Amino acid sequence: MLVGRPVTTVRRMRLGMELRRLREQARVSQNAAAEAIDGSDTKISRVEAGKTGLNRLELTALLDLYGVTDERFRSGLVELNRTSRQRGWWQQRSDILAPKLQELIELESTASQIFEYEAIVIPGLFQTKEYAQAIISGFPPPHSVPVEQAVQIRLERQKLIERDDAPRIICVLDEAVLHRQVGTPEVMADQLRKLIAINNPPHLSIQVIPYSAGAHAGADGSFRLFSYPTPADMDICFLEQKESRVFIEEEAGLEPYRTAAEHLRTQALSSPDSMKLIAGLAAEFDSRG
Fold first, then answer.
1. Residues 162, 104: one domain?
2. Which of 5, 34, 124, 198 measures 20 to 30 Å from 160, CA to CA?
3. Neighbours of 171 (CB within 10 A)
């Protein structure tokens, strides 16, 4: 478990973890790996931790040393290494984006699947402009970023779900999220209708845990679970706090969150029944407007 560690790129972290697995599987020491690329054991350690990268020749030398012969797998790692050096739009706006937000966008943008359980508010990827304005105005962003600019950044993040290669998204909401009025009744009604509009199982599935479910697997707080594809498939759990963030990558730490995600989906209403509940609440907010 890592608290507040910068994620340079998720791709680099995935590559590093896979290279470590391959080295240990081949029973090669860090010193021997360092000699193969004319480097130091410190560099190998940093590469495996995702803190620094490799050029193509160095990566090829390590794959040869580790006995990796599968050409498709090798090509996948070479491509992963190449793309790890690419800068996303969020990294080009580091002057206004807090590190925590840059890391979240990096996690979202490179995942093949996202599971999110939210107990308090509508997730940022699904918020309407007006709902986002009300949320951000009530809790202004750090570093003196104007509210309107912060809202536009949140809307920019939402382009992720419109991409041809968008990740599969599974979102479970506590029913309290739907009742908590953020902004005016009209803002809430529009926000709830947006949830209905974007719900598109199995690509984007929204489920609600009703009050009648009682105690459930998400009672100890919200979390996000990101999954990444081969090569170097891995999961990362992201826990967000006011001034810090926690990344969980180790299998022992991830397993309770995977189990919680499974239980939450089982305890929640089906997606069609969730939409009926959301539609009813939207009508209630309409009647208050």
1. yes
2. 5
3. 24
